[in-house]
Amino acid sequence: MNFFKWTALGVGGVVAVAHIGVLGHIIQATKTPEVPIINLPRGDYSSYRIEAGKEGYTIEYKANDPAILESERSLHLDKDRRGLFGGGSEKRDEYRLDQYTMNGTRNIGGAAIDSEGKSAKEVECIVADAGARSQGALAGASIATGAVAPMLVSIPYIGWLASGWAVLLGQRMGSSIGSEVGSVFNDC
């Protein structure tokens, strides 16, 4: 009976220690605050700053940092121009500051937005497209009237209608072609 008593006491002791350990772990786990997992997108031009304290945390994230890249150039020229006809000296100082976007295009100041949310370049493109469409429509109607309409007028009963359709079709085709050509020439 002595062996059974010591075995039961040993197993009971192991269970008691394990039970106290599990309870201690559960109590300790509820005391520690849970920190949120924040997956910030990371890229070549992104930056972020996180401040955490007892009251909470703040995150400052910039997806495109630096948004504008700058380049500075300066030229100091002091040239003596003495040649066949005389001349003089030339002194010149030049300074240039350029701003670039991420894809490498130089900012030329065309990004001013009006009250409707359109930039100056968009407004210029709309005006150029309207002019190109009207010029193309005029040219298409003229070509259809001079080349196609005289042949269609001679059709009995519907010649007048067919020639009108041909002029309208020429006007539409000229308008769309004029728009495409105008967008190429005006860089829109």
Characterise this structure.
With 188 residues, the protein is of the alpha+beta class. It has three helices and four strands, in the order H-E-E-E-E-H-H. Among the domains are: 2-62; 120-185. Helix 2 (120-153) packs antiparallel against helix 3 (159-185). It is elongated, with a radius of gyration of 40 Å.
In brief, what are we looking at here?
With 188 residues, the chain is of the alpha+beta class. It has helices spanning 2-31, 120-153, 159-185, and strands at 47-52, 57-62, 69-80, 89-100. The model has no long low-confidence stretch (mean pLDDT 79).
Q: What percentage of amino acids are in beta strands?
A: 15-25%
Number of helices: 3
Distance between the terminal alpha carbons, to the nearest Å? 100 Å
Average pLDDT taken over every residue: 79
What summary fits the major beta sheet?
A: 2 strands, antiparallel
Q: Approximately how much helix is present in the residues?
A: 40-55%
Q: Care to count the β-strands? A: 4
Q: Structural class, please? A: alpha+beta
Compute the gyration radius: what is it? 40 Å
Kindly report the spatial arrangement of strands forming the biggest sheet. Answer: 1-2
Which parts are unreliable, with pLDDT below 50 for 5 consecutive residues or more? none
**SSE string:** HEEEEHH
**Broad shape:** elongated
